[in-house]
């Protein structure tokens, strides 16, 4: 340090040279930036010269003031995006100037320009992946090969114009889970571990006790928190919890880009479209909301199975059910645990109807017309499968109670097929000759075609089978059982678009007991048809899943079987 009274010798030579180098670097950056902007403006629009000069002066001042390179890159990219948008808008004014392929190439080129070396490697790779995904989704518009596989994952039947990023998000499917926020990961992990500790203490607490209630089908979870367990369990829980608290949570790589997350928010807030899962497959379908509501209301108003009512009867239905189960409990036809489960009717609400679009029934010609002219959507009727969600409705729990006694009987039917795996196992066990005949059948609107009377009669005829099975809970008398079932069938109310409807015929698709009731009645119909079927002895396999059937015949009667039809009352030809 200089002594008092002496002149300051000035900065060291190293600092002077560093400042000089920074000034030279800034000068080079300014020069290169101006040259780049001049070339870029010629590429997009010569009319932007004045704007370039203004932008260069602003950026030059930012460089002089010590703006970071990252900010400068952001400024350059924002200007490039702005010019690119202006260029696309001017190009799309005359459709003859650019083909669809050229327009998409322009958009892809902009995405490629954004993946420059100034971005982190992970983000650059993510944006490159977006380009590849976009090619796969939009299919053969980009060329041949395996392009277009993502197109099958979603279908658009809407006049709404979706952006490329919205298309990318939809193509991932409804089961896609975005990366969670790491902010609360440790809290959630500790909460789950506390629940594990509670269950371990419960196991220890009840280890020397015989408690038959634990296997009860309608036991309500109590959330019981016992006192501390033995030292071994408590030491393990304490040590493990301390290790979890010391865990370092690594940042999870985001499986959605910032553009895709923004597109996801836009799709959620778009009130002009409805996004549903397609019937019969896992495709995602985008529909116009107004068209979806209109076609669903036409279905409800034109069907003999539904009637519109003016007010909710939710509380009345719940009170009637409570009276019935209370009487059964007094007569000891229902045990205490089942009664507590059925009597717990807090937060009840009316059912809700929604439609799963049957896009597989739209012919190819209509699909092509929709692609060229979206207004053609007004002229087609997209069929749908009506599903009534009865979660927390008054008839949900009592329906589960009824279904508990029906399931064992249905699973014992010789035509019963539980799921796809069960069907494959049946097929693998068949040693069929090469000339065997294979055929399938389908029952149209099976759930709505079954009347309430024939369903009740089918359960009445199968009552001896229900009694023959062993049940974990008491079985009510047949008279009370059928009375409860009839009340459920006649009081299926639901809401759609703020309108209230009641189902007057058939069984609701979505109710807990509906699959068992349909299987039970269809088994009777099929066996009645087989009784008059002359080729019954030549059946190699008959497998039925809900309204679909699969049959293998001996080939000896090939011609006769192909021309054979059976008519059944209330059903189409078999």
From TrEMBL:
It comes from the Eukaryota. Residues 337-574 form the Reverse transcriptase domain. Residues 1-22 are annotated as: Disordered. This is Reverse transcriptase domain-containing protein. It comes from Mytilus edulis.
């Amino acid at each position: 340090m200089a002594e008092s009274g002496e002149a300051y010798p000035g900065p060291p030579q190293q600092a002077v040279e560093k400042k000089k180098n920074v000034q030279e670097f800034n000068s080079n950056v300014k020069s290169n930036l101006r040259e780049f902007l001049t070339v870029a403006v010629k590429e997009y629009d010569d009319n932007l010269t004045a704007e370039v000069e203004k932008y260069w002066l602003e950026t030059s001042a930012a460089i002089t003031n010590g703006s970071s390179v990252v900010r400068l890159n952001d400024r350059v990219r924002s200007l490039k995006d702005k010019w690119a948008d202006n260029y696309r808008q001017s190009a799309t004014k005359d459709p003859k100037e650019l083909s669809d392929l050229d327009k998409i190439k322009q958009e892809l080129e902009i995405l490629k320009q954004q993946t420059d070396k100034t971005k982190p490697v992970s983000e650059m790779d993510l944006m490159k992946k977006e380009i590849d995904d976009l090619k796969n989704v939009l299919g053969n518009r980009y060329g041949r090969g395996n392009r277009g596989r993502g197109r099958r994952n979603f279908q658009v039947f809407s006049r709404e114009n979706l952006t490329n990023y919205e298309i990318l998000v939809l193509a991932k499917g409804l089961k896609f889970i975005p990366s969670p926020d790491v902010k609360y990961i440790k809290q959630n992990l500790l909460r789950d571990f506390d629940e594990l500790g509670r269950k371990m203490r419960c196991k220890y607490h009840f280890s020397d006790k015989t408690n038959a209630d634990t296997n009860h089908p309608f036991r309500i979870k109590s959330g019981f928190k016992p006192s501390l367990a033995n030292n071994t369990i408590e030491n393990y829980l304490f040590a493990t919890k301390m290790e979890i608290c010391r865990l370092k949570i690594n940042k999870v790589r985001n499986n959605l880009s910032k553009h895709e997350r923004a597109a996801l928010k836009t799709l959620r807030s778009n009130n002009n479209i409805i996004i549903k899962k397609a019937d019969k497959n896992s495709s995602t379908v985008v529909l116009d909301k107004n068209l979806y509501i209109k076609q669903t209301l036409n279905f409800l108003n034109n069907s003999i199975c539904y009637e519109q009512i003016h007010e909710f009867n939710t509380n009345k239905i719940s009170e009637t059910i409570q009276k019935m189960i209370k009487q059964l409990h007094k007569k000891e036809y229902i045990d205490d645990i089942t009664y507590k489960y059925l009597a717990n009717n807090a937060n009840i609400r009316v059912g809700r109807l929604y439609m799963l679009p049957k896009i597989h029934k739209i012919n190819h010609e209509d699909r092509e017309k929709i692609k060229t002219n979206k207004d053609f959507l007004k002229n087609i009727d997209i069929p749908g499968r009506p599903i009534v969600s009865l979660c927390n409705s008054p008839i949900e729990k009592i329906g589960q109670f009824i279904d508990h006694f029906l399931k064992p009987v249905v699973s014992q039917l010789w035509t019963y097929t539980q799921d796809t795996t069960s069907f494959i196992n049946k097929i693998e066990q068949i040693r069929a000759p090469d000339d065997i005949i294979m055929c399938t059948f389908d029952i149209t609107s099976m759930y709505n075609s079954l009347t309430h009377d024939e369903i009740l009669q089918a359960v009445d005829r199968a009552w001896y089978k229900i009694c023959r099975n062993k049940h974990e809970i008491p079985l009510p008398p047949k008279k009370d059982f059928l009375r409860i079932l009839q009340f459920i069938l006649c009081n299926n109310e639901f809401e759609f678009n703020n309108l209230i409807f009641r189902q007057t015929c058939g069984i609701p698709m979505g109710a807990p007991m509906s699959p068992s009731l349909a299987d039970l009645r269809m088994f009777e119909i099929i066996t009645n048809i087989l009784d008059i079927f002359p080729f019954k002895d030549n059946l190699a396999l008959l497998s039925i899943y809900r309204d679909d059937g699969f049959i293998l015949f001996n080939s000896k009667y090939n011609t006769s079987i192909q021309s054979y039809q059976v008519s059944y009352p209330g059903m189409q030809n078999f």
